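Reopening this one. Same input as before:
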Amino acid sequence: QYQEMSAAEATTFTSSARKMAFLITTAVLMAVIPSSRAFQIPATLSVRGYARPRTTESENKASIVYTKPSSSWALGMATWSNGQAIQEYKDFLATGKLELEKEDDGPSVIVQSSNPSNIIPLTDAINGLGNGDDVILTPNDSLPPSLGGKTSYPIYITLPPYDLKEFIQNLNDDWKARAEDFVFFSGTKICGVVEPILREFGMCRDAMTQVVVGFTLPPPGSGLGGVARNPECMACNIGVDAQGDIKWAGESQACGKWNGAVAGRLDAYGIRCKTVFYREWRRAMWERALYDAVWNLIGAVRVEDTDHADVAMFFDVEASDMMWELVNNLRGGLAVTLIYGFEDRLLSIAEMRGKDEPCELIDEMFDHLQNVFPGSCVMLNEYLNYAKDRRGLLQGAKVPPVPTELSELPSLIKTGNLRANGVI
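Same output, byte for byte:
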Protein backbone atom coordinates (compact mmCIF):
# COMPACT_ATOMS: atom_id res chain seq x y z
CA GLN A 1 0.00 0.00 0.00
CA TYR A 2 2.85 2.36 0.79
CA GLN A 3 4.32 1.87 -2.72
CA GLU A 4 1.00 2.83 -4.27
CA MET A 5 0.74 6.09 -2.31
CA SER A 6 1.33 9.49 -3.81
CA ALA A 7 4.27 11.55 -2.59
CA ALA A 8 2.04 13.66 -0.31
CA GLU A 9 0.31 10.61 1.13
CA ALA A 10 3.63 8.90 1.76
CA THR A 11 4.98 11.94 3.57
CA THR A 12 1.91 12.11 5.83
CA PHE A 13 2.08 8.38 6.53
CA THR A 14 5.78 8.54 7.44
CA SER A 15 5.26 11.47 9.79
CA SER A 16 2.40 9.73 11.58
CA ALA A 17 4.40 6.52 11.90
CA ARG A 18 7.32 8.37 13.46
CA LYS A 19 5.08 10.07 16.01
CA MET A 20 3.48 6.76 16.96
CA ALA A 21 6.89 5.10 17.30
CA PHE A 22 8.05 7.92 19.58
CA LEU A 23 4.97 7.60 21.82
CA ILE A 24 5.33 3.83 22.10
CA THR A 25 9.06 4.04 22.83
CA THR A 26 8.50 6.70 25.49
CA ALA A 27 5.73 4.64 27.11
CA VAL A 28 7.96 1.57 27.27
CA LEU A 29 10.89 3.50 28.75
CA MET A 30 8.78 5.24 31.37
CA ALA A 31 7.14 1.92 32.28
CA VAL A 32 10.38 0.00 32.88
CA ILE A 33 12.55 2.78 34.39
CA PRO A 34 11.48 4.35 37.71
CA SER A 35 10.69 7.97 37.02
CA SER A 36 12.60 9.28 40.01
CA ARG A 37 15.84 7.63 38.85
CA ALA A 38 15.65 7.90 35.09
CA PHE A 39 18.78 9.32 33.49
CA GLN A 40 19.74 11.33 36.59
CA ILE A 41 23.12 12.74 37.54
CA PRO A 42 23.64 13.79 41.17
CA ALA A 43 23.53 17.56 41.61
CA THR A 44 26.17 19.43 43.56
CA LEU A 45 24.98 20.03 47.10
CA SER A 46 26.96 23.17 47.83
CA VAL A 47 28.08 25.82 45.41
CA ARG A 48 29.06 28.48 47.93
CA GLY A 49 31.72 30.84 46.61
CA TYR A 50 31.03 30.25 42.92
CA ALA A 51 29.32 32.79 40.68
CA ARG A 52 26.06 31.18 39.65
CA PRO A 53 24.48 32.44 36.43
CA ARG A 54 20.75 33.01 36.46
CA THR A 55 18.94 30.12 34.86
CA THR A 56 16.39 30.28 32.09
CA GLU A 57 13.27 28.15 31.88
CA SER A 58 13.00 25.41 29.30
CA GLU A 59 9.61 24.75 27.78
CA ASN A 60 10.15 21.03 27.51
CA LYS A 61 9.58 18.82 30.53
CA ALA A 62 13.27 18.51 31.31
CA SER A 63 14.94 19.30 34.58
CA ILE A 64 18.59 20.21 34.11
CA VAL A 65 20.96 20.25 37.04
CA TYR A 66 24.21 22.15 37.47
CA THR A 67 27.48 20.32 37.87
CA LYS A 68 30.67 21.96 39.07
CA PRO A 69 33.65 21.44 36.74
CA SER A 70 37.12 22.38 37.92
CA SER A 71 37.37 25.52 35.80
CA SER A 72 33.95 26.63 34.57
CA TRP A 73 30.23 26.12 34.86
CA ALA A 74 28.42 23.77 32.55
CA LEU A 75 24.97 22.25 32.23
CA GLY A 76 24.68 18.65 33.29
CA MET A 77 22.77 15.99 31.43
CA ALA A 78 19.05 16.66 31.09
CA THR A 79 16.79 14.75 33.45
CA TRP A 80 13.36 13.78 32.19
CA SER A 81 11.47 12.20 35.05
CA ASN A 82 8.13 13.76 34.24
CA GLY A 83 5.42 11.16 33.73
CA GLN A 84 2.92 13.71 32.44
CA ALA A 85 3.49 12.75 28.79
CA ILE A 86 2.57 9.14 29.55
CA GLN A 87 -0.44 10.18 31.60
CA GLU A 88 -1.69 12.44 28.80
CA TYR A 89 -1.28 9.59 26.31
CA LYS A 90 -3.24 7.24 28.60
CA ASP A 91 -5.96 9.85 29.02
CA PHE A 92 -6.17 10.26 25.26
CA LEU A 93 -6.49 6.50 24.70
CA ALA A 94 -9.18 6.27 27.39
CA THR A 95 -11.27 9.29 26.44
CA GLY A 96 -10.13 10.47 23.01
CA LYS A 97 -9.70 13.96 24.50
CA LEU A 98 -6.39 15.83 24.45
CA GLU A 99 -7.44 18.66 26.77
CA LEU A 100 -8.48 18.79 30.42
CA GLU A 101 -12.21 18.86 31.07
CA LYS A 102 -13.07 22.12 32.82
CA GLU A 103 -16.08 22.87 34.97
CA ASP A 104 -17.51 26.40 35.03
CA ASP A 105 -17.46 28.58 38.13
CA GLY A 106 -20.72 29.09 39.99
CA PRO A 107 -22.23 29.18 43.48
CA SER A 108 -19.95 27.31 45.86
CA VAL A 109 -19.47 26.39 49.50
CA ILE A 110 -16.60 27.97 51.43
CA VAL A 111 -15.60 26.14 54.61
CA GLN A 112 -14.05 28.23 57.37
CA SER A 113 -12.93 27.27 60.87
CA SER A 114 -15.56 27.10 63.62
CA ASN A 115 -12.97 28.74 65.89
CA PRO A 116 -13.06 32.51 65.18
CA SER A 117 -9.37 32.87 66.05
CA ASN A 118 -8.45 30.32 63.34
CA ILE A 119 -10.31 32.00 60.46
CA ILE A 120 -7.65 32.90 57.90
CA PRO A 121 -7.66 35.58 55.14
CA LEU A 122 -8.08 32.86 52.51
CA THR A 123 -11.79 32.68 53.39
CA ASP A 124 -12.43 36.34 52.57
CA ALA A 125 -10.22 36.09 49.48
CA ILE A 126 -12.17 33.22 47.90
CA ASN A 127 -15.49 34.77 48.88
CA GLY A 128 -14.45 38.14 47.47
CA LEU A 129 -13.56 36.56 44.13
CA GLY A 130 -17.03 35.04 43.76
CA ASN A 131 -20.27 36.54 42.51
CA GLY A 132 -21.89 37.02 45.91
CA ASP A 133 -23.81 33.73 45.78
CA ASP A 134 -21.38 31.56 47.76
CA VAL A 135 -22.33 29.96 51.08
CA ILE A 136 -19.88 30.13 53.99
CA LEU A 137 -20.12 27.17 56.39
CA THR A 138 -18.15 25.61 59.23
CA PRO A 139 -17.37 21.88 59.49
CA ASN A 140 -20.26 21.57 61.95
CA ASP A 141 -22.85 22.68 59.41
CA SER A 142 -24.71 20.56 56.85
CA LEU A 143 -23.96 20.84 53.15
CA PRO A 144 -26.82 22.13 50.97
CA PRO A 145 -28.25 19.48 48.61
CA SER A 146 -27.81 21.83 45.65
CA LEU A 147 -26.52 25.28 44.73
CA GLY A 148 -27.49 27.25 41.65
CA GLY A 149 -29.64 24.33 40.50
CA LYS A 150 -26.67 21.91 40.58
CA THR A 151 -26.17 19.04 42.97
CA SER A 152 -22.40 19.12 42.37
CA TYR A 153 -20.46 22.26 43.25
CA PRO A 154 -16.98 23.21 44.53
CA ILE A 155 -16.38 23.07 48.28
CA TYR A 156 -13.47 25.39 49.07
CA ILE A 157 -11.63 24.24 52.21
CA THR A 158 -10.20 27.46 53.64
CA LEU A 159 -9.07 26.01 56.97
CA PRO A 160 -5.57 26.62 58.33
CA PRO A 161 -3.36 23.57 57.75
CA TYR A 162 -3.08 22.86 61.49
CA ASP A 163 -6.89 22.33 61.56
CA LEU A 164 -7.07 20.25 58.40
CA LYS A 165 -6.28 16.80 59.83
CA GLU A 166 -8.95 17.07 62.50
CA PHE A 167 -11.45 18.25 59.89
CA ILE A 168 -10.87 15.23 57.63
CA GLN A 169 -10.86 12.77 60.54
CA ASN A 170 -14.25 14.00 61.78
CA LEU A 171 -16.11 14.13 58.46
CA ASN A 172 -19.60 12.69 58.70
CA ASP A 173 -21.08 10.50 55.97
CA ASP A 174 -22.67 13.41 54.08
CA TRP A 175 -19.37 15.28 53.90
CA LYS A 176 -17.43 12.14 52.99
CA ALA A 177 -19.80 11.56 50.07
CA ARG A 178 -18.84 14.98 48.71
CA ALA A 179 -15.07 14.60 49.20
CA GLU A 180 -14.44 14.61 45.43
CA ASP A 181 -15.73 18.21 45.36
CA PHE A 182 -13.26 19.48 47.96
CA VAL A 183 -10.79 22.16 46.88
CA PHE A 184 -7.56 22.37 48.91
CA PHE A 185 -5.00 25.19 48.92
CA SER A 186 -1.21 25.22 49.26
CA GLY A 187 1.43 27.95 49.22
CA THR A 188 2.26 31.16 51.11
CA LYS A 189 2.85 31.49 54.86
CA ILE A 190 -0.89 31.09 55.43
CA CYS A 191 -1.68 27.89 53.50
CA GLY A 192 1.67 26.07 53.67
CA VAL A 193 2.08 22.46 52.52
CA VAL A 194 -0.85 20.10 53.09
CA GLU A 195 0.32 17.14 51.00
CA PRO A 196 1.41 14.99 54.00
CA ILE A 197 -2.05 15.37 55.55
CA LEU A 198 -3.92 14.63 52.32
CA ARG A 199 -1.67 11.66 51.57
CA GLU A 200 -2.51 10.16 54.96
CA PHE A 201 -6.19 10.08 53.95
CA GLY A 202 -5.66 9.02 50.33
CA MET A 203 -6.58 12.43 48.91
CA CYS A 204 -3.45 13.04 46.83
CA ARG A 205 -4.71 11.91 43.44
CA ASP A 206 -5.46 13.22 39.97
CA ALA A 207 -9.16 13.90 40.54
CA MET A 208 -8.72 15.90 43.77
CA THR A 209 -8.83 19.65 43.17
CA GLN A 210 -5.82 21.48 44.58
CA VAL A 211 -4.61 25.04 44.12
CA VAL A 212 -1.22 26.69 44.45
CA VAL A 213 -1.95 30.20 45.74
CA GLY A 214 -0.44 32.85 43.48
CA PHE A 215 -2.39 35.83 44.75
CA THR A 216 -2.32 38.10 47.79
CA LEU A 217 -4.33 37.30 50.91
CA PRO A 218 -5.23 40.70 52.39
CA PRO A 219 -6.11 40.62 56.10
CA PRO A 220 -9.60 41.62 57.30
CA GLY A 221 -10.19 45.35 57.47
CA SER A 222 -7.47 46.21 54.99
CA GLY A 223 -9.87 47.75 52.45
CA LEU A 224 -12.30 50.64 52.41
CA GLY A 225 -15.20 50.43 54.83
CA GLY A 226 -13.43 47.91 57.05
CA VAL A 227 -13.73 45.02 54.60
CA ALA A 228 -10.85 43.00 53.19
CA ARG A 229 -9.32 44.14 49.91
CA ASN A 230 -9.73 41.88 46.91
CA PRO A 231 -6.73 39.63 46.20
CA GLU A 232 -4.21 40.73 43.59
CA CYS A 233 -2.25 38.60 41.13
CA MET A 234 1.33 37.83 42.20
CA ALA A 235 2.48 36.32 38.89
CA CYS A 236 5.71 37.79 37.52
CA ASN A 237 6.60 38.25 33.85
CA ILE A 238 10.27 37.21 33.69
CA GLY A 239 10.86 37.48 29.94
CA VAL A 240 10.30 35.26 26.93
CA ASP A 241 11.48 31.79 26.05
CA ALA A 242 13.12 30.54 22.86
CA GLN A 243 9.71 30.28 21.18
CA GLY A 244 8.84 33.88 22.05
CA ASP A 245 6.24 32.95 24.69
CA ILE A 246 6.11 34.86 27.97
CA LYS A 247 7.60 33.05 30.96
CA TRP A 248 5.73 33.41 34.24
CA ALA A 249 6.80 32.87 37.82
CA GLY A 250 4.57 32.64 40.88
CA GLU A 251 1.29 32.17 39.03
CA SER A 252 -1.60 30.26 40.55
CA GLN A 253 -2.04 26.68 39.35
CA ALA A 254 -5.00 24.33 39.74
CA CYS A 255 -5.51 20.63 39.10
CA GLY A 256 -8.34 18.15 39.55
CA LYS A 257 -12.07 18.11 38.97
CA TRP A 258 -12.80 21.81 39.61
CA ASN A 259 -9.64 23.29 38.08
CA GLY A 260 -11.71 25.15 35.48
CA ALA A 261 -14.01 26.65 38.12
CA VAL A 262 -11.02 27.84 40.14
CA ALA A 263 -9.34 29.33 37.06
CA GLY A 264 -12.55 31.06 36.00
CA ARG A 265 -13.03 32.60 39.43
CA LEU A 266 -9.45 33.94 39.49
CA ASP A 267 -9.36 35.02 35.83
CA ALA A 268 -12.45 37.20 36.36
CA TYR A 269 -10.34 39.37 38.67
CA GLY A 270 -7.21 39.42 36.54
CA ILE A 271 -5.39 36.68 38.45
CA ARG A 272 -3.45 34.26 36.27
CA CYS A 273 -4.26 30.61 36.93
CA LYS A 274 -2.81 27.73 34.96
CA THR A 275 -4.83 24.49 34.77
CA VAL A 276 -2.62 21.41 34.79
CA PHE A 277 -2.54 17.72 35.58
CA TYR A 278 -1.70 16.64 39.14
CA ARG A 279 1.92 15.69 38.40
CA GLU A 280 2.76 19.11 37.02
CA TRP A 281 0.81 20.81 39.80
CA ARG A 282 2.81 18.91 42.40
CA ARG A 283 6.07 20.28 41.01
CA ALA A 284 4.71 23.82 41.21
CA MET A 285 3.50 23.24 44.76
CA TRP A 286 6.89 22.05 46.00
CA GLU A 287 8.60 24.91 44.17
CA ARG A 288 6.42 27.36 46.08
CA ALA A 289 7.09 25.42 49.31
CA LEU A 290 10.80 25.89 48.70
CA TYR A 291 10.33 29.65 48.48
CA ASP A 292 8.14 29.90 51.59
CA ALA A 293 10.52 27.81 53.72
CA VAL A 294 13.87 29.25 52.64
CA TRP A 295 13.10 32.95 52.27
CA ASN A 296 11.28 33.27 55.57
CA LEU A 297 13.94 31.37 57.50
CA ILE A 298 17.00 33.17 56.14
CA GLY A 299 15.46 36.58 56.66
CA ALA A 300 13.95 35.83 60.09
CA VAL A 301 17.25 34.92 61.77
CA ARG A 302 18.55 38.47 61.32
CA VAL A 303 18.14 40.94 64.18
CA GLU A 304 16.95 43.68 61.83
CA ASP A 305 13.65 43.44 60.02
CA THR A 306 14.29 41.84 56.64
CA ASP A 307 11.89 41.39 53.76
CA HIS A 308 11.91 38.89 50.91
CA ALA A 309 13.48 41.36 48.49
CA ASP A 310 16.42 41.87 50.88
CA VAL A 311 17.07 38.12 50.94
CA ALA A 312 17.08 37.98 47.13
CA MET A 313 19.43 40.95 46.81
CA PHE A 314 21.93 40.34 49.62
CA PHE A 315 21.64 36.71 50.77
CA ASP A 316 21.03 34.87 47.50
CA VAL A 317 24.09 32.63 48.05
CA GLU A 318 22.70 31.27 51.31
CA ALA A 319 19.23 30.94 49.80
CA SER A 320 20.57 29.06 46.80
CA ASP A 321 22.66 26.67 48.90
CA MET A 322 19.69 25.83 51.11
CA MET A 323 17.36 25.42 48.11
CA TRP A 324 19.71 22.98 46.40
CA GLU A 325 19.97 20.91 49.57
CA LEU A 326 16.19 20.65 49.75
CA VAL A 327 15.80 20.05 46.00
CA ASN A 328 18.12 17.05 46.16
CA ASN A 329 16.15 15.65 49.08
CA LEU A 330 12.88 16.13 47.20
CA ARG A 331 14.26 14.18 44.26
CA GLY A 332 15.45 11.30 46.41
CA GLY A 333 12.70 11.29 49.04
CA LEU A 334 9.52 12.15 47.16
CA ALA A 335 10.51 11.52 43.51
CA VAL A 336 9.87 15.19 42.73
CA THR A 337 12.25 16.90 40.31
CA LEU A 338 11.64 20.61 39.94
CA ILE A 339 11.52 22.07 36.44
CA TYR A 340 14.75 23.68 35.23
CA GLY A 341 14.96 27.38 36.08
CA PHE A 342 13.42 27.26 39.57
CA GLU A 343 16.18 29.47 41.03
CA ASP A 344 15.50 32.22 38.51
CA ARG A 345 11.76 32.02 39.08
CA LEU A 346 11.97 32.16 42.87
CA LEU A 347 14.53 34.97 42.90
CA SER A 348 12.32 36.90 40.48
CA ILE A 349 9.30 36.48 42.76
CA ALA A 350 11.27 37.86 45.71
CA GLU A 351 12.74 40.75 43.74
CA MET A 352 9.48 41.77 42.06
CA ARG A 353 6.90 40.94 44.73
CA GLY A 354 8.87 40.63 47.97
CA LYS A 355 9.35 44.28 48.92
CA ASP A 356 7.75 44.90 52.36
CA GLU A 357 6.88 41.19 52.66
CA PRO A 358 8.35 40.39 56.10
CA CYS A 359 10.35 37.23 56.71
CA GLU A 360 8.57 35.41 59.53
CA LEU A 361 8.74 32.12 61.41
CA ILE A 362 5.33 31.12 62.78
CA ASP A 363 5.15 28.42 65.45
CA GLU A 364 1.80 27.02 64.27
CA MET A 365 3.02 26.83 60.66
CA PHE A 366 6.40 25.21 61.35
CA ASP A 367 5.16 21.68 60.56
CA HIS A 368 3.59 22.97 57.33
CA LEU A 369 6.38 25.22 56.04
CA GLN A 370 9.88 24.24 57.22
CA ASN A 371 9.34 20.75 58.64
CA VAL A 372 7.93 19.18 55.47
CA PHE A 373 11.04 18.27 53.48
CA PRO A 374 12.37 14.69 53.43
CA GLY A 375 15.90 13.57 54.15
CA SER A 376 18.67 15.09 56.22
CA CYS A 377 18.29 18.84 55.76
CA VAL A 378 21.49 19.87 57.56
CA MET A 379 21.67 23.53 56.56
CA LEU A 380 17.94 24.05 57.07
CA ASN A 381 18.08 22.51 60.54
CA GLU A 382 21.16 24.51 61.52
CA TYR A 383 19.34 27.73 60.74
CA LEU A 384 16.21 26.53 62.54
CA ASN A 385 18.18 25.71 65.68
CA TYR A 386 19.92 29.08 65.51
CA ALA A 387 16.53 30.78 65.20
CA LYS A 388 15.23 28.93 68.26
CA ASP A 389 18.31 29.05 70.51
CA ARG A 390 19.80 32.45 69.61
CA ARG A 391 16.84 34.45 68.35
CA GLY A 392 14.11 33.10 70.61
CA LEU A 393 11.89 32.08 67.69
CA LEU A 394 9.86 28.87 67.23
CA GLN A 395 9.72 28.27 70.97
CA GLY A 396 6.61 26.16 70.58
CA ALA A 397 7.98 24.03 67.73
CA LYS A 398 9.90 20.76 67.86
CA VAL A 399 12.95 21.67 65.81
CA PRO A 400 15.06 18.66 64.67
CA PRO A 401 18.41 18.58 66.52
CA VAL A 402 21.73 18.99 64.69
CA PRO A 403 25.07 17.29 65.48
CA THR A 404 26.88 20.60 65.95
CA GLU A 405 25.35 23.88 67.02
CA LEU A 406 25.63 26.85 64.69
CA SER A 407 27.55 29.36 66.81
CA GLU A 408 27.17 32.26 64.42
CA LEU A 409 25.49 33.05 61.13
CA PRO A 410 27.62 32.32 58.08
CA SER A 411 28.76 34.62 55.31
CA LEU A 412 26.94 37.92 54.84
CA ILE A 413 24.11 37.42 57.33
CA LYS A 414 25.35 39.79 60.02
CA THR A 415 23.86 42.16 62.53
CA GLY A 416 23.65 45.71 61.23
CA ASN A 417 24.75 46.22 57.65
CA LEU A 418 23.11 44.20 54.94
CA ARG A 419 26.57 43.52 53.52
CA ALA A 420 29.47 42.31 55.65
CA ASN A 421 31.88 44.69 53.88
CA GLY A 422 30.15 47.71 55.40
CA VAL A 423 28.25 48.73 52.27
CA ILE A 424 24.60 49.25 53.15
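So the earlier flakiness isn't reproducible anymore. For the record, The chain has 14 helices and eleven strands.
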